[in-house]
């Protein structure tokens, strides 16, 4: 039997699969930004917040590298908590897509400052990991220097990708507390979940190493996560929670997926957030 005659098609197919895999991975690396960020630019969105019963102040501020940024500041309804939630949203849409959620948070009696990262909404520039960290820090500094807030009045609220921004900011600025919703451990873990059979994590430059940073946070942290999250499995959120310092709490939202936590969670969800804030 001619062994080479048998091996030749096998080697050919194997080589072809290897070449296709390499090309695919190179394409992933080249298109990384398009895979991570899904910004919606102005004028797309819902730019009439009053239609949702929300009154906002347009805020313009500048990141360390000169990128012009935009956000909305709103005061809480019948505010009895001297707290402002500095809200870092997820990787898709813009601040206008959070208006219903924003309205309900304001009804808790807290102020809300929600910002668009570079490349989102009315903010300039294009998003990348280092850039959105700069944006998160610039928003904090805006509250301190322009809105006369103190560190004891600021609570970071990061959802999904925004949780990674909140973790980064909390390691560099003093805050009263942190809320991390639908959080993940790092980019490699997410890449493995999205494409489990390919070494995508080794090909991308994004790190979002929240699990490596969270041990440097020494204020109370509330983790919230839907138990049916199909984007960021709840196991990643629990792993990040386990790495965090005390005091901390992990609140499971029964039946919630990735983008409907506040809808499915309803009154109990908002009560949990208010309870956490009242105990700070």
Please give the order of strands in the largest beta sheet: 2-3-6-4-7-8-9-10
Q: What order do the SSEs take from the amino end to the carboxyl end, as H and E?
A: HHEEEEEHEHEHEHHEHEH
Average pLDDT taken over every residue: 90
User: How does the major sheet shape up?
Assistant: 8 strands, mixed
| Category by helix and strand content | alpha/beta
Count of domain modules = 1
CATH architecture: 3-Layer(aba) Sandwich
User: Radius of gyration, Cα only, in angstroms?
Assistant: 21 Å
Main traits of this protein?
single chain; 280 residues; alpha/beta; Rossmann fold; eight-stranded mixed sheet; two-stranded parallel sheet; 9 helices; 10 strands; globular
In short:
By secondary structure, the chain is α/β, with parallel strands linked by helices. Helix content is 39%, strand content 18%.
Describe this structure in words.
The structure is a single chain. With 280 residues, the protein is α/β, with parallel strands linked by helices. It has one domain (31-278): Alpha/Beta hydrolase fold, catalytic domain (Rossmann fold, 3-Layer(aba) Sandwich). The chain contains 9 helices and 10 strands. The protein has helices at 3-30, 32-36, 99-106, 129-145, 161-172, 187-194, 210-213, 234-243, 261-278, and strands at residues 38-39, 57-62, 68-74, 84-88, 92-93, 111-116, 154-159, 177-181, 221-226, 248-253. The chain has an 8-stranded mixed β-sheet, with helices on both faces. Strands 1-5 form a two-stranded parallel sheet. Strand 7 (154-159), helix 5 (161-172) and strand 8 form a beta-alpha-beta unit. Helix 4 packs across helix 5 (161-172). The chain is globular and about 55 Å long.
